[in-house]
Hints:
Elements: E1 7-13, H1 17-27, E2 36-41, H2 48-54, E3 58-61, H3 67-77, E4 82-85, E5 91-92, H4 96-104, E6 111-118, H5 125-144, E7 154-157, H6 158-164, H7 177-185, E8 191-201, H8 209-227, H9 232-244
Parallel strand pairs: 1-2, 1-4, 2-3, 6-8
Antiparallel strand pairs: 4-7, 5-8, 6-7
Helix pairs in contact: 1-2, 7-8
Amino acid sequence: MNRLRTVSVVIPARNDAPALARCLRALNRQSVPPLEVVVVDNASEDRTAEVARHYGARVVTERRVGIPQAASAGYDAARGEILARLDADSVPGPRWVEQVSTLMSGTRWDAVTGVGRFYELPRSGRVVAGLYLGAYYLLCHAALGHRPLWGSNMALHSSTWRQVRDRIHDDDAEVHDDLDLAFALGPERTIRLDRSLVMGVSARALRGRAQMRRRFARAFRTLSVNWAIAPPWQRWARRIRHVLGPGRGRPPATRHPTAQRGQGLR
């Protein structure tokens, strides 16, 4: 039987104290507790840091405003063998950490991602969540050449993070950090989509035209900066070569031309 690997839960948060409290209460009721919960206080002006400490989380401060900056700071600071990622308004079930550790321990997956349900919506919300996430996974798969990651419910090995650290765009607050990380992982790595890994999430990201415009703008920004490095047809060609000849290995972990070194814990 494989040993369950240790899990650090990373939560970027900015002015999210009430939602964060609910998330942390759920993490404190896990069947297998995480090694640690790392809350990245992203220049909050409310009680975010105070709430995090109250529930036993370790607080990392990232003063550059932006989810990519905050997520990277959290991954850099985390001590676990597995880095699990949530949003402040995520509500994990009682076995979520155990599921993540089981899926990632002794397997060939580089990363794992799951699905969600909108806890603020009635039963019909399941259909909305299915359509929303289904479209996300389908369209991003086409753009990447492999499965994407969804930041409200995902995990990767800490060793994998270190390998791709210099390829991400955490100097750009207008990219989606989860999609950008999936681009950095590349077609030669394997991301598992596990539908048994279910996360309660807020529907606030889908409310209002301004919010939707912002999300789409960030999506196009993430695609443009990464397609400038490798357009989708090149990524798909790499994926096909990898699948047909898995023994050929992975590309060397070369420095990303636009990434900055030393952007860890500040």
